[in-house]
Amino acid sequence: MGKVAGVSSAPRPRGRPRSEKTRQAILAAADELFLEHGLDAVNMDEVAERAGASNSTIYRWWPSKHVLALDALVTAWEEATGLDRDRGSLRADLRALVRPWVKRVAARPYARMIAALVAEVHRDPAFGEIWRVDFVQERRRRGRAAFVRAIERGEIAASTDVELALDLLYGSLYHRLLHGHEPITERIGDRIVDAVLGGVTELARSA
Amino acid sequence: MGKVAGVSSAPRPRGRPRSEKTRQAILAAADELFLEHGLDAVNMDEVAERAGASNSTIYRWWPSKHVLALDALVTAWEEATGLDRDRGSLRADLRALVRPWVKRVAARPYARMIAALVAEVHRDPAFGEIWRVDFVQERRRRGRAAFVRAIERGEIAASTDVELALDLLYGSLYHRLLHGHEPITERIGDRIVDAVLGGVTELARSA
Amino acid sequence: MGKVAGVSSAPRPRGRPRSEKTRQAILAAADELFLEHGLDAVNMDEVAERAGASNSTIYRWWPSKHVLALDALVTAWEEATGLDRDRGSLRADLRALVRPWVKRVAARPYARMIAALVAEVHRDPAFGEIWRVDFVQERRRRGRAAFVRAIERGEIAASTDVELALDLLYGSLYHRLLHGHEPITERIGDRIVDAVLGGVTELARSA
Amino acid sequence: MGKVAGVSSAPRPRGRPRSEKTRQAILAAADELFLEHGLDAVNMDEVAERAGASNSTIYRWWPSKHVLALDALVTAWEEATGLDRDRGSLRADLRALVRPWVKRVAARPYARMIAALVAEVHRDPAFGEIWRVDFVQERRRRGRAAFVRAIERGEIAASTDVELALDLLYGSLYHRLLHGHEPITERIGDRIVDAVLGGVTELARSA
DNA sequence: GTGTAATCGAGACGGTACGTCGAGTCTTGTG
DNA sequence: CACAAGACTCGACGTACCGTCTCGATTACAC
C-alpha cells in the first residue's frame, strides 16, 4: 500500500527511486476504471495502459488487483472527506457524517466496488485485515468520535454501546447499498439517523 | 430455478423426464462444496463429480455458477426455516426471527457465500433481480409480517416505516456478517432487536 | 447400413416394422446437409429434424455419424452411376469412367465429404473396413473391368499390373481433389487417362 | 509458424524473448503424441503437459490444434529430408525422392496424421492455404526440380506436363496411403516411378 | 564521470476456470 | 417392437486473465 511504509527517517535506499508520478497515475487509473466498469470487467493490463505504466510496475507495489482497488478507493475517499468538527448535537454530527456518504454513493457505482471488495475479504483473510484496518475502522472512527462527544456532553448515556450504534447506522446504509432492494436518497440518510437515535418510535414520528 | 410452480394439471411433457434425483444431488453438492470452500475455490466439474452428474447437466438447468449457488442456498435455507407463528409481542417475534439466523450464520461460513453472491448482484443486474426476488424479499417478508402484527395489535404506531425498520434490523446483522469487524453472537442478535425497538436509549439500558 | 443386413429369407420380425420412408428421409437429409455444409458443421439433431425423424431413430440403424454419411454418399452415388458397357477401346472405357466422376466432383463439394471420411478411416479401423468394401472397391471394380477387357482384347499386355494402373488413375484424380493444389477439369481427366495409358506399357515391362 | 525468416539485423524486440526451448518442446511433444495416438485422441493439455508448457503458451503461438500438428509435421519432415542432388537420370532422381518417403510413411502412422490434416484443409480454407504453401508445394518443389533437370538434359520432351507428372507420382503414393486398400512397400514405390516415366511420354504427346 | 543498484516498460509464461458444443446413450410415453 | 422427445454422460475446445518471470533500457545516487 505504501502508506504503511515510510517513516521519516528512511535509510535512504540506493538505486533508482520509485516514481511518485507513476504511483499516482496507477491509483488514478485504477480508481476510474474499476469504479466505472467494475473490478471484474477491467484487467490489469488495461489499468497499466491507462496509467502509462506496465503490468509489472503495478505488481511490484501492489500484491493483487484487489489491494490496488482498495488503495485507489481509500485514496479517493480520503481526498474527498471533509473536516470533522463538532456540530453541537449528536443528530447534527451524524447527519454531517451520513449526508456526504449518501451523496457520494448515489453519484457513482460504489456499491459494485464495495461488494467486490467485501467478497474478497471473505475469500482472502489477509486482504480482510487490510480492509478492516484501512477502510472499515477508518470510517467508523469518525462516527465513534461523534458518539463520544455526545456522551461527554451528557446528551446520551455513558453506557451507550457505541459500537452497536455504529452498526445500526452504517449497517442500514450499507444494507441498502449492497442488497439493492431500495434506492439510497438523502432523505433516507436523515431518517436512518433519526431511527438510530430513537428506534422504532422515531420511525413513526419522522415519517 | 425450478420453483416456477407449475399448475397441478401439467400437460404431461414428452420425452425423458428430468431426473429429480440428479437435481437434488446437484443442489446438495453445490450447497456443501460452495459453503465449505467458497464459491471461487470450487469449480463446476467438482460440483458435477460430487453430485454424480455431468458438467453439462448442470449448465442445462442453471445458467451460471452463481445462480446455482443461490438456488442451493435458498433451498437449504428454506428447509431449515421454522414456522412463523405469533409470539405475542414484537420483541418476541423479532427475536424468534433473529436467533435462528444468528445460529445458522455463526455455525457455517455463510458470510463468504453471501458476500460472493452480493458481489455478483452488482456485476450482473439479471442475477440481481433473481437475488432480490428469491432471497432478499423472501427473508424480509417474515420480518415485515411481525411488524404488521405489532401495528394491528397497537403495539407500535401505524405510521411506522416498516421497511426502514427492517433495514435497521437486517442491516446491522448483515453489516457485522459482511464487514467482519466484530463476531456475531446470540447476545448481539437480541441487543440489535432491542436497539431497533428503542434506538440509542435502548442501547444504554440493555448494555 | 442396412444393405449389409437383410438376406431375403427374413424370418418376419415381430412388432412394428421399420419405416422405409423414414430410412430414405434420413439418408436424403444426411446427403444434403453433410454435402452442403460439411460433416462437422452439421450435427445429428439437424439431420434428424430435416428428416422429420428423431436422434434415436438414426442411431438405432446407423452406428455413427460417419457411417450414416458414408451410407448417404454411397446411396446417392449409386443412383447416379451410369451403365458399364464396353466402349471398344481402353481409352474410351476409361474416359467414360472418369468424365462423370469429374463432372460430379466439380459440381458439388464432394472433396470435403471424402476428406472427412478418409480421416475417419484412419481414426477407426472398423469404419475403414466398411469404407473399403462399400466405397473404394466398388469404385475400382469398374475400372478393373475395363482393363481386363483391354487385356482380353489384346490391347495391353496380359502382364499389366491392373491394380497399380488403377492407383495411377484414381490416385491422380483423388490427389487433385484432396490436396486442392490445382482445380479439377474435364480436360485434366482426359489427360490423366492418356498418361496412365502411356505408363501402362511400363507397368507390364517392369513387372 | 516462425519461418518468416527475419533479416539478420533484427531490430531487437523489447520484452521477454520467446523461449526457443519451449517452442521446440511443444513441437516435439506435438509430433510424438499426435503421430503416435492420432490428432483426435490427444488434447492440447496433454501436449502442453508433455512439453512442460502450458495450454495458453501453445495457443499464443499456434491458432489451432491442426496448425500446430502441421507445423510439427513439417518440422520433423524437414529435419529428415536428405539432400537434393542430381543422380544423373530422372529415374534415379525420382527413386531417391520416393524411397525415403515410402520408408518414412511405412514406419510410422503418418497416414492418419495426413488424413486428419487433409480433412481440415477442406473444413477451413485458411488452413488449406497454410497446408498448400508449407507442405504440398514444398514437397512438390523437389520433384519438379528432377523433371526440369531431365528436360534440360534432353531425357524427356520439353513439352512434358510436369505438374501432371507430379500428380501421377504423388497421387498414386498418397492414394495408397490414404485409401488404405493396399500396403505401401519399397517395391511399389519403384514400380510407380517406372509407370510414371512410361506415362510421361504420353504427357508430352497429348499436350 | 563512472559504477552500482534499483526501477521501469514490454511482453512471454504457467496455471486454471470458464461456458459451449456435439456425439452417442438412456429413459420415458405413444402408436 | 419402432418411434419421437428430450435428458443424460463424457470430454475437448478455445478464451480469458491473474500473477510471475525475464529481458533490456533508464535513472539516480555514491564515489
What does this structure look like?
Four copies of one chain form a homotetramer. Chain A has helices at 20-37, 44-51, 55-61, 65-79, 90-107, 110-123, 125-152, 162-179, 186-198, 200-205. With 207 residues, chain A is mostly helical. The model of chain A is unreliable at 1-9 (pLDDT under 50). Chain A is built from ten helices and no strands. The first copy, chain A, folds into two domains: 5-74, Tetracycline Repressor, domain 2 (Orthogonal Bundle), CATH 1.10.357.10; 81-206, Tetracycline Repressor, domain 2. Chain A is 70% helix and 0% strand. The longest helix of chain A has 28 residues, at 125-152. The first copy, chain A, starts with 19 loop residues before the first helix and ends with a helix. Chains in contact: A-B, C-D. Chains A and B meet through helix 6, helix 7, helix 8, helix 9 and helix 10 of A and helix 6, helix 7, helix 8, helix 9 and helix 10 of B. The structure holds a DNA duplex (31 and 31 nucleotides).
